[in-house]
Predict the structure.
Amino acid sequence: MQRHPENPISIEMSRRQILKTAALIVSFGTGAIQSEGDAQIALAVPSDAASGSAPAAKPVDPGLVDSFLAMHPDGSVTIYTGKVDIGTGLRIAIRQMAAEELGLSTDRIALVEGDTALTPDQGSTGGSTGLTRGGLEVRKAAATARDVLLRLAAQRLQIPVEQLALVNGRIGRAEGSESKTNTRVPSKDIPVSELLSDSARVDLKVDFHANLKHHLALQVIGRPIPRPDIPAKCTGGERYVQDLTLPNMLHARVIRPASIEAKLLAVDETPLRGIPGARVVRVENFLAVTAKDEWAAIRASRALKATWSDAATLPGSQDLEKHVREMPIAAEETIVERGDSAAGIRGATKQMAATYFWPCQSHGSLGPSCAVADVRDGGATIWTSSQGTHHMRVSFSKIFGLDVDKVRVIYLDGAGSYGGNGNDDAAADAVLISKTVGQPVRVQWMRHDEHGWDPKGPQQLIDLRAGVDRYGRIVAWETEMWVPAMLGPTGTIPLLAPAEAGIAQPSGQWPGMIAQNGDPPYLMQHLKAVAHRTQTTPLRPSHLRAPGKVANTFAVECFTDELAADAGTDPVTYRELGLSDFRAIDVLRRAASMIGWKNRPSPNPSAKRDGLLIGRGIAYTHYKQSENYIATAMEVAVDPASGKITVQRVTCAHDCGLVVNPDSLQNQIEGSILQTISRTLHEEVKFDRSRVTSVDWAGYPILRFPEAPIVTVALIDRPEMPMLGAGEASCAPVAAALGNAVFDATGVRLRAVPFTPDKVKAALDKAAREKASPA
């Protein structure tokens, strides 16, 4: 048996060895099962991981059971999934879903993720589809395998399949079953390995309509089983892509210009003479240095003298809202239209309007992006923490002229990603340099690279108008938003390295489904929401966690609070009157109850306490208007002297249907809340006419540990309901709840993030002047 150091599950064996100890991948006939001889032993035989060639015997067709699971002689199982765990807990949750159908404990299941040579393409890990697609497909493959194994055992034992159960790799009598007619039933159960023979291979297709275990019979799903990756991450034993080394590997740093779209005019390599092994790699405007160790590469990148042209292609972030309104429009999109909103607003008792703005934001991964590539013989092996390894395999083969059958992309943990950060760009850097120098190359970005060059969550501008009746109830509503167009192939984020090297690649931009939740979830007669899709955006856009939904919910839910305040109605009561879905009302009431909500209108008449202004706020969202139901309540303290906001408590009621692992889900919700508080209080990408200027933690601050509030989460488990993804949805109402709490405390409405102390103090001072001036 051989194991490659970079892929410890890879094995190579003879057929005789297979029959003794090897992994068994279940393959069965697509037609009727005639006998247990239709079962087939197959073996995934990955070649040397560094060669980039795909294993010939391991299927990756997402329609085949073999592609998803391998059953071993001892009854344990290996699961293969194209989805990857970027900190969401998929490694345990997918094990739980498979274990439920196979009658195993999770510690008897190994998992291989995001290796294009071994795992089926289940799409990129985004949009909270890790379990709703990735896990569900694995679960159905496991259920398909279980059903066929039970039928094989029933044929051998000559008893009805209904009397059998698969438990811990063995098939025996189901609990409570009795043999009525067959006296040949053995007293002992049968190991699964006895049902798998070495006969002619025929493939079993996944039955995507397979009967899954009834929710009342679940034993593994729904349990808070600890994540297997946490101990190593807590003790320093986790192996990240940054830790990967290969024989003969070079370390590289890419040198990018001071100005976006600048051209490389000249390079002076003279300063590198004192750095042993340092080498310059230049392909048109792409510039990098390589060395045998990382410190030498860093020294070389700092010493190299490059001359660039000037470029001033950006509008600057100072007046970005004005610039957005003037951008050319690529398309007009009607999100929803019901009734006649314009006439409804004109005929209403009162009309109100407001504008909300969300700035460009960085992904802010704590560790800068890193990737390793080994390009040779027309193929490549790429190690990356990308969320889309299969997509990368196809796109990189086209961009860099590689044989797609010789390209292998292997996922390794990175510092965390919240959508399309710099990971794919670092991988493209590594591929281009490795292809140029003919050796394995590790590219490590620096902090200024990550903040300066990662694709950004783009700016959003939202105009809102509403008409209310004499009771303050919403009659008509209009949302008008300016958001980047989705141009080019799905997922298109043009990469830096090919662009700089003059290599053709798909053009376009893909900020994610950024117009969702721009329409309110409340009942009203007239409603219209439109998106002006801008042709361009100042900085390269990408999907950033809950893309678009955070900003849109911020606008919609804060404006809803404005209407409630104008009507003199309690914010929770006001929302309840516009809801009919019991799941929506349930989360709203629970979040309010947990924070000790008292029925009254905003702002708080008793806000002052120990020199601070105290307020509470709430926000609700039906994520994408079709997924999770979430309500978030907050209590904040505002220091009127400095403008500093302190979030003291947060409560969240979360309904995503079936909960697979409540502990992992709670981790995700808490992380989403804290990250979005950070985005609301602190985060904004600053840029001038030439470049991003917020390229360090001082220029782009994030939430710090002392600022973290007490977070209480109520998980509403509905195992009878379909499972909904939950990796990002709880981000959506956070900014709105915070903004509403600040209004409750101060009587001042903040309509643009971040809520920095200077901005808050200026708003408070302006409100005080207006109050003091004569009418």
Summary: The CA atoms of residues 313 and 720 lie 54 Å apart.
